[in-house]
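Example record for the data management plan.
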Amino acid sequence: MCLVVGASGLDNAPMESFWGTLKQELVYHRYYRSRRKAIHLYLLVPVVRAQVQSECKQDITEYIEIFYNRQRQQARLGYLAPAAYEQKFYVGLLAA
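Corresponding structural encoding:
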């Protein structure tokens, strides 16, 4: 049951889709050096926790800012990368 008036269960669908894409394209294809240590020591050693968080944060930031927003081909953009689509759009504006 949704507790917010006027909201539906589909409100979160875009974010769920994004996180699924991120997992498929980034997380499942990476091996983090400290993952095994983190499983055993995550709750006991704050330094390991900080290393894992830092490594993951950097990878996720690079994925979003460099790959997803600039290079990844997207169906809604005619299978162009966002940077290529933007360039094509502005070239069309200048030509008009």
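Summary line stored alongside the record: The radius of gyration is 19 Å.
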